[in-house]
Amino acid sequence: REREREREREMSSTGSRVLVIGATGGLGRHVVQASLACNCPTYAYVRPSAVNDPGKATLLHSFQSAGAILLQGSLEAHDSLVEAIKQADIVVSCVDPANYLSELKILTGIQEVGTIKRFVLFDYVAAHSVEFYGALKSAIEARDKVMTTVMGSGVPFTCIVMYGFASYYLASLGQLDSRAPPTDKVLIAGDGDLKAFMVSEEDIGMYAIKAALDSRAENKNVHLKLPKNHLSQNEMVSVWESKTGKTLERVYESEEDMRKSFQDGSGATFTRLLKHFTFAKGGHNQPLNNSNEVEVLELFPEVEYINADRYLDRFVK
């Protein structure tokens, strides 16, 4: 235990160098900001096309103004990837779920470099006892393959189990098809009473960096189970109605009808698959049974996070 404390002190006192892959994405940008906020030398690995993209110019400029260093390359460019990894102590992968298998290329680079203290990855599905369909099933299978390979590699890792992005889950009141609350009616999965966990992207970034710097999170799956953000669709709707003073029409879709639409292919969009898993099957509520699973508040009980009530305030006009 004393050796772990020494390693933790070393990582925090030396300002561990952090490489963020997928830095311009919806999650990656918050990881970059969190790393900078922790005074870690921060490197953002971005595609050359992103540097020349006017839509991302402001974001990249903000990174540089805050002290981040931009490194250009792609996951397909092995030499560039390895050179980027050499700059870091910690590698954080923020790749899109559709590209999970590409993380095996990152792992290969980490193994080649041989000096990385922590490889941080993300997941949003903790329960594997639920039946999956379509694109969600493919993403879960890819994530399982990557995690099995990482765990067998000997590379120190931390997997952040995010559950649901607040910008999708909470902002849409559980519909997952928009980034803002509905104005007249809300589509509810099942009876609307199964709860889900939702976390703001800025808090995901903050917890990811804190876990990356903490020896207690090494070789662990860190679950972002935040009690003030554990709500059902019905509860989210009620909170929103209390803020606006307007009642929304609640339209319910049974779990059976959702499942049938997946089986015949008519309604198997990724967001509906996630909604079914989360709110119709209760996929966020499985207990943690393994020694490598830990809840984030066990590690950082003192950290203040953005609760659901406060998050929804940003949409009140």
Automatic annotation (TrEMBL):
It comes from the Eukaryota. Keywords: Membrane, Transmembrane, Transmembrane helix. InterPro entries: NAD(P)-bd_dom_sf, NmrA-like, NmrA-type/Isoflavone_red_sf. The chain crosses the membrane at residues 146-171. SUPFAM superfamilies: NAD(P)-binding Rossmann-fold domains. Residues 16-312 form the NmrA-like domain. Gene3D superfamilies: NAD(P)-binding Rossmann-like Domain, UDP-galactose 4-epimerase, domain 1. Pfam families: NmrA. This is NmrA-like domain-containing protein.
